[in-house]
Amino acid sequence: MVLGLMIKAVFQSLCPSCAGPISSYRLSLGVPCNSCLPSSKLDNMEDISKYPLEKKIRLISKSLSDNPQSAYHLMRDTFEELESFEKLFRESTGKNIWSLQKTWAHRLLLGESFAITAPTGVGKTTLLLHYAAYQLKKGEKVYILVPTESLLNQTEEKLKEICYKMGIDAEIVVYQSRASKKKREEVLKKIEEGKFGVLITTTSFLSRRYDILKKLKFDLIVVDDADSLLKNSVNIEKVLVLIGFDEDDVKIAERLIKCRNELFFYLGTNNKEKTENLKKGCEELEVSLEEAKAKKKIGQLAVASATGRQAGSKPKLFKELLGFEIGGIHDYMRNIIDSFYLYKEDKELIEKIKEIVNNLGSGGLIFVSKDLGVNRAKELVKELEDEGIKTSLATAGKSVIKKLARGEVQVLVGVSSYYGVIVRGIDLPEVIKYAIFVGVPKNKMPLNSALFSPRRLLQALIYISDKDENIKARFEDLQSKINKLNPGEQFALRIALQKGTTKQLSGWLGEVADVILKTISEVTIKLDSIIPREKGAVLNLGTSLIERGEDGSLYYINPDPLTYIQASGRTSRFLNDKMTLGFCLIFEKSKEYLEVFKKKIGNYVYSFDPKELSSINLKEISERLILSRMGKDGSKSFKPAKSIMFVVESPHKAKTIAGFFGRPAKRRFGSVVVYEIPIVDQETLETYLAMIVATKGHLFDLVSDNNIGTYGVIKVNEEFIPVYAPISKCLSCGRTFVSLHNKCPYCGESFKIKSSMETVHVLRKIAMESEEIYIATDPDVEGEKIAWDVEMAIKPYNSKIIRAEFHEVTREAILEAIRNPRKIDESQVSSQILRRVTDRWIGFPLSSRLWSEFQKPWLGAGRVQTPTLGWIISRHEEWKNARGYWVRIPLINLFAVKLFKKDKKEAEDLKNAIIKSGSLKIDSYEIYEQQLLPPPPYTTDELLHDANMVYGYGAQFTMKLSQDLFEAGLITYHRTDSTHVSNKGIQIASEYLSKGIGKPEIFYPRSWGSEGTHEAIRPTKALSASDLKKSIVDGTLKTYINVTEAHIKLYDLIFRRFIASQSRPSVVEKLKLNLSISYNREKEVFEKELILREKETGFYGLLYNINEQTQIADYIKEGRIPVDVSKVEIYRGSLIPLYTQGEIVKLMKEKKIGRPSTYAKILDSLRRHGYVVISKKRNFVIPTNTGIKVYQYLSSNYSSLVSEETTRKLEEDMDAIEEGKESYLALLAKLYDALTRLGLISEVELAAETPVKIMDEALI
Question: Which residues participate in ATP binding (predicted)?
Fold first, then answer.
């Protein structure tokens, strides 16, 4: 920022101690407001700000003893209890608590229930067992649930050791089904009588013996594996009752889930009465649930999760009753060499497995694909034993695992089932080195059964719709119907289809079921006709296959990547803080199976690229496997995981980012959702627990209260200090406002008010839990201002704040932003402040003058709106003056030509002559070649222009679609003036041209100028519009927006323009025609140029359709071109056309009075104020009488303020500030003087009514 000046501002409600106003200066130091803590009470304030957070909090808290509600006291108490827990943890383990464990401990100590979603080896179980012991020490009753019997003893031993080291004498009761009858009965009696401090059982015990457990209440329940709990969804209800809810509470929550699902559906309909009734019903159920919770002492639930597979509505009970949702990670910490081998005969398979075992030795797991079955696994055991390999079939229990550990068997064989014996719950890092998969893990089912899933049906439809218009229409109709269903309805529909109970469905759901059943029948017949009859013939559906079976029937083949990830993960585990190297080999007969598996697993494992076995040196691999278990060559040292808060603007973007790394756990605080997901950076070996929060746009704006300075800006000692307050929304009238008072200025409502402070409170809470904060708001001045506001709001709670910047929402871009953080750019912040204050100082007083002049309180004025309105009015006048008549002359099977006549009779004479002649004469022609150069990729103005011209999309609508596409991770940032293309973009074009359409020869890479702040608008993936649709339907690409046909069309425009920009020039053959018609002794001449064909293939065919004119040669020979006389027409028009929205946007760009972020808003403001209307047919922008009168008034009275030149100069000044070349305060002073001279603002430094506290903070 210029001259290193600090940005001064006052923020209402942000003092952490009293929730009153506070200066940006004090927030930046992390201290409370002057009223709470005067400078005189705190020496060396700037030095104190440099203290470690805990020390600073204690010091400030000590000085605030007269305010028991201060947040500083809460922070102090939290830090002290955390310190106490850390001390016990350190005494027990001999190690300091890790950053990630500290985050979880922080939440646990505050009594929160939540799901821990994290990869193996980051200390989930260790932390939870220590917390269980900590609660035992307080006399709390604890229940620990583990997935398998084998983990019972292990958990008991660990907990006993922890309790011993922490000096806790606790009664630990463990129920084991394999214990003697007498022992089991003793344990059951203890459980029934509640004679224990901690109970440890499997989740299956919870299912079987709930009759005993339900009489007990637990203060803490720890679930060591979410999957084991979710496998039987009834267990969810049982756990909730065991921590203090009653069955009625659970029923209310279930009704609320159902009510919300119905509301979700009806929000998309016009049934307002039903929608309102459902809203009211949901509100009443929410109140009932809150009242029930308030009356009870509810225990705590902590759930550890890695994959978190879940289905149905039961898991949503956690959300409604405890405020969290279980997630599952995709981005696993892996250190595995993946490979494959395509074999033909079973004999070859056995020989190769023998070769692997002989080279790699003991410690192997063999997984047989489920579709081959247990019998094939048994056969494989025998075949391997016959070859001299010590093999055993993996069965329930620990005996076979112990045999493997002792070296009594070399390999274990099991079925690759997600809950298989050796797929989960086996942790032998020293022993297990490699895994062999006989067939990729997959599920196989009859096609008819598979198509009962609406999503699979859509997948089949889109992949066979390319050459069948009827199927395409069926797909679009069915997709439209299914998209209207909420997740609950989709689940109910799928179950009804599977069970054959669709007749029980009523209303809309019943109609959809009927359409689906009819479509299944049609699709099955179609597939049977197009898939060859021979066994093994397949149709590839992207991430699955349809295959012809031995019996001639069709089967749906669905790869199961999660089972592969779980199973392969047995080979690569943490050992002495390092991850061992593992080796995995897939044996497969079908190349198609392997390809769809690779595509589907790409959603879970980044850059999964298995190598052919022939390219691998097994002896070298064997040595590396052994050395890695000694902590040497091959092992990976992932850095200790740290917790970060990652702040973005949009909830869609938050969800998209979290989705790159898995299915996030969710924590809900009112209407604010925090997405929580581990992020593993394989490049830097950093691991993060990212808590992703959306601000939902700006949190603060200038106050609108009349008693706060000049339109929310206070002038103090020749300085201008903006006063910000949280943005509020009235839920009664729907309007937003910014005021010091919690009352809607429009309708008077004071209860149903939603404030952005709700989000601020959540940001502060998560900031306290996090080691670092990354603020990743949009990469423009608005995003920078939001980032600065967030920094100010959370600085007292965590001072480790950095800015992350990305220009596309992709996995790699997010990682790159985390790797390369920066500081918040205060020059950009200053520029935004100047822009906002200028809008206020010019817009508010001018609007007030308009209200007074025209008696219309909805009128408004703005510094960019007004000159733009002037252009529209000027063009409208030119259009009127040049009006006349166009004669349109369509030529048969060709194009149309037009001629303008001022007089209607002249136009009619010309029309009659053409009809009488029936043709136009070719006076001359020329055929020549021309090289055409491709256009650059889109900038914002060009995109708005073309979307308007091609599809008729308005500017605001195009920006909304662009925003969605950006947040969904499909295009780069859409507010840009740059045409630059990065290396990543060039790679995307190369990939598409070579692999997508097989034309690598036309690839012509261009960067389109030097690298700047932004990049051009381009796709983020090498997917055409049709590929994109398929990828969304088949699940390759997950989007968290409803991708409509309008989105697809705009994406197609962006994609084709970008690919064209990276293609070589085209050489085309052009025809120039001079045509004429003679009548009334006059001769009318027409000139027309058209492209006949593309002679040297380049960009042109990618961007435009070339209609080859086959008949033109005959017409040239004849010397005349026939006219379609029945379609010759006259219509009213003008030689000078009206502006379209797209053309106005281009004009703003050319005249430098707008920005990419404001083009659409300016046009929308003109429309909302009633100054212009948009013609429906041609999208022309037409001024209204009101617009003309308002412009005349403003240009007559305030021309120096609203002229094009003044506006352009202001934009230049703002750019200078953004670049750090000018001081925003100096420019504000200049504008203030100009406005004062015009009488638009008064020469008053401070309004007398300005609250004292705000004044005190402004004077700091």
Answer: 101
